[in-house]
Amino acid sequence: MSDDLEPISPREAVDLYVSHRELEISAKTLQNHKYRLNAFVEWCNEVGIDNLNELTGRDLHRYRVWRQQDVNIVTLRGQLATLRVFLEFCASIDAVEPGMRERVKLPDVDRGDEARDEMLDADRAHKIIGYLERYKRASREHVIMAILWHTGIRLGSLRAVDLEDYEPKDQCFWLRHRPDTDTPLKNQEPAERAIALDDYYCDVLDEYIRFHRHDVVDDHGRKPLVTSDQGRLSSGQIRSEVYRLTQPCMIEGCPHDRDPNDCEATEYGHYYDCPSSLSPHTIRRGAITYQLREDIPEKIISDRCDVSSEVLDRHYDRRTDREKMEQRRDFIEDL
């Protein structure tokens, strides 16, 4: 232990860290950091670490082994990433030795495994859409994010919509299976349907078409609804847009303690490298869960989002058992 360190308890250090970050990150992110670090404080209390000056690399390994008994690998990686940021702060206030954060080894996580546990929560979705409403209203980015969240449709479904499929008077657009011209729907003809839109989303689409949509056709002579200056967007272009739009630093501070001006993940082709960026499918999962929490019947969500009840329950519904119980209670109170 270095003689330059000043004694401090784990709890006091966490309290100082929280106070330090509360103006830099959102309340939701700060709450997540407090939850993750509370587990570390609990472990310190269990093993008798009363002074962070005494913390060693071996202690950090023991904490990781202790924590991985209760959480999956995706959650573990997130909690250890927060611990690393915390330890960097602790080094700056002479609570731990410099370089202690590098002794926290993050587990490798397959992106596919991570995606199965990820979803865009409603609070974050509304912040992103609110930001786009304020600064980029009716832009292509606004349309992509707003429509994916409002409808819960797949990336390929959004890409498949033509300008003539949108019916502003009836406030809807149609999804058509057109495999011969490069826009198939995942579940083919049975997935063809009309998607109802609220007033706000129709207004955004109307403005986009009037002011920002490129008047172009694709390789098959069709007019896409959402365009680039070259024609219909590819799946990769839409996916890249979503990765960029879900980076936290677009609307608030970076939770990974990076400088956005120097971060490679803010450069085109590297948006995916941000640990907090999300894929289009996490928007679908979050949108479906949000609709379920808003008491929209499962049958309506199943039809609107083209997902069977069995698959909805197994892969999309992220409500807790208690949430489901409380929603059922609302329907039986007057029986």
TrEMBL record:
Domain Core-binding (CB): 8-91
Gene3D superfamilies with a match to the protein in the record: 1.10.150.130, Intergrase catalytic core
Single Gene Ontology BP annotation: DNA recombination
Molecular function (Gene Ontology), one example: DNA binding
One Pfam family per UniProt: Phage_int_SAM_1
Residue span(s) of domain Tyr recombinase: 115-330
Keywords attached to this entry: DNA integration, DNA recombination, DNA-binding
Protein name: Integrase family protein
Originating species: Natrialba aegyptia DSM 13077
